[in-house]
Amino acid sequence: MITVEKERVFSGMRPTGRMHLGNYLGAVQNWVRMQDTHDCIYAIVDYHAMTTPYDPEELNADARNMLIDLLASGIDPEKCMLVVQSQIPQHTELAWILGTITPLSWLERVPTYKEKADMHPDYLHLGLLGYPVLMSADILVYRATRVPVGDDQKPHVELTREIVRRFNHLFGETFPEPQARIRRETARIMSLTEPEKKMSKSLGPQSYIGIGEEPEDIRGKIMSAVTDAGPPADGQMSPGVANLFLLLECFGGDDISSEFEQQYEDRSIRYVQLKEATAEAIIESLAPIRKKRRELLENPQLLERIMERSREEAAALAEETMQDVRARIGLLR
Ligand code: AQP
Hints:
The protein is mostly helical. The protein folds into 2 domains: 8-188 and 300-329, 3-Layer(aba) Sandwich (Rossmann fold), CATH 3.40.50.620; 212-293, Tyrosyl-Transfer RNA Synthetase (Orthogonal Bundle). It contains 14 helices and 5 strands. Strands 1-2-3 form a 3-stranded parallel beta sheet. Helix 3 (56-72) crosses helix 13 (271-297) and helix 11 (239-252) crosses helix 13. It is globular, with a radius of gyration of 21 Å. The structure holds adenosine-5'-tetraphosphate. Residues 13-14, 16, 22-23, 26-27, 149-150, 152-153, 187-189, 198-202 line the site of adenosine-5'-tetraphosphate.
């Protein structure tokens, strides 16, 4: 399946809960588009999920659900590889090697490290600090050059480029410098409950909409989303209202969102109607995903087959890179 002419793509998703609209609009829609034009490897990055507090049983269930959510969202294992990070040991092997050439100061300045450290002050460990090194290894073990992500991941891809330059300088030209592919309009979908923060699994289930959620839950969450007391006099839209407009545009299209924008401008808007329209647009757009999820849940053998085939193909690519890396850095074979 892998070709020499097409550019190679890697991206991953942490199984820390259910896949939400931020993941879907910020990353997965690009993943789906790129599988037709690029050689793509997508991963459920379960080692990354272990860098914040987790429950082993939930991790297992979340990884399985994430796989189902990705397939239901349009990831097609006939067109790309869909793998589980922990099943391909070359990821962690390369992470160790890259860790030996990555200065601590580069890692300490990564914004997500500071955020997660503030969020979980009793859970500071090497794995959390080294998260971006493992992410670099995820990308580089396949020598991928494109990384479709939301904008919170941009610093990690930049760091990967720095690590590549350092490795190539020390051991000779080995890795290409990857580039983040970020969809500007949906680079950061905001939380429904704290709209100044990005929609995130860790902000709690009321703050996000899972792509497999039932209509009544979607309605409930959108109807209680944080807005404001009405269009402010300075015309500066609050983050909660702007987020609803963005969701309406993504799922309902330009016509309906322009209608509400007009009402916002002439101050006749009623947020309850904006919310109803947004909820209905999301519910309708996600209906095929809910249907596909139900079909996949009934067919666990299919999931096993998909995982096994991708695992073999991806492991062969990763091993090819590692043979080159081991020889360059002087490991005895
Ligand atoms: N709110 C978002 N808007 C746009 N893109 C987003 N992504 C995540 N949240 C948003 C993108 O989704 C991909 C997978 O992300 P992830 O689940 O691996 O990690 P994350 O960014 O840490 O996601 P969460 O939901 O915030 O997880 P927790 O709470 O566990 O940390 C990435 O490309 C990401 O940019």
